[in-house]
Amino acid sequence: xxxxxxxxxxxxxxxxxxxxxxxxxxxxxxxxxxxxxxxxxxxxxxxxxxxxxxxxxxxxxxxxxxxxxxxxxxxxxxxxxxxxxxxxxxxxxxxxxxxxxxxxxxxxxxxxxxxxxxxxxxxxxxxxxxxxxxxxxxxxxxxxxxxxxxxxxxxxxxxxxxxxxxxxxxxxxxxxxxxxxxxxxxxxxxxxxxxxxxxxxxxxxxxxxxxxxxxxxxxxxxxxxxxxxxxxxxxxxxxxxxxxxxxxxxxxxxxxxxxxxxxxxxxxxxxxxxxxxxxxxxxxxxxxxxxxxxxxxxxxxxxxxxxxxxxxxxxxxxxxxxxxxxxxxxxxxxxxxxxxxxxxxxxxxxxxxxxxxxxxxxxxxxxxxxxxxxxxxxxxxxxxxxxxxxxxxxxxxxxxxxxxxxxxxxxxxxxxxxxxxxxxxxxxxxxxxxxxx
Length: 437
Fold this sequence. Notes:
The protein is α+β, with helices and mostly antiparallel strands.
């Protein structure tokens, strides 16, 4: 009986049909999983932050694509006018690293996939390239996505089709980021114009006040000097000496105020960061210490020189000091520490200044936005959100950087880096500057 049943199953092909059914079902399930993964990756690529930098965008796209493709490097290439900028990402030890390549297009020639691959091949020989163009809603090419594959890795038509489909979605995200950057640049320029107008008004007012104070101050200094000659000893001498010294200090403050308000002082000169700190503290140090804040200076013994605009760098230092003061409201034992030191980043030597307060710190979600124009956590009567944005622009115009780090509940530190000028270079370039010091 069992043999008969076995013969019937073989003749009717029940086992073979069942096996074929399960094979097809498994294939269908795997295909659905694959399609589902592709949709997940596309969904990830539509969520790129519009305020991300281009290396961050390249990292994000490469990380998502690595779930679908096997590649060695990924390049996001953007075309702005006659310039190609390629942001090439590679994963090393679990971390993405980006290399930026910038090249010029031939005038009048529209960007082509072959142009991108040719330029990448010069820097990364020995790879096979899979590239697709990014097109705007007006069907204009503004960039490219490129996978750098092993030369021995065979081509796959389905891989190219999928990559083209993904590029359509990535193109929308990248175009949004470019639009955001254009708008942000315009907002930043408007912020700088507003701040410049405010500083011009403050400078004009400060100059007027300084000139008004100079006349009575001249009388105070002159009369105190005459009295000191008359009373070179006796009980009145210490009092007269104190009056004269206070008058000299007021005169120095007025001179600094005039220098700060003088708008024509925008030409670059060699400056000492330590000297600028002393000048700024003579202007606003009192209004900070009168609030009960302790200011500690840890300045280098030898001066650190840089080339820049005295007025603009003083503006940065004043902004940072006033921000630190505002951050210490309600803090027990409020303190500010000012430091100067030499630093090096990516082979460039900097004259560095840092200001640290022991306030409540800056939340991480705010820390990434503090340099954006009009962003502020202060009340409308306390700030406009322009100070740090303008300060960052000034630092970058000097070839420097303005960095921030903070720990909530503990501290905030802002560091200004300005390209260091060696004394020998100063002597060669501007001997008069050294003589003045």
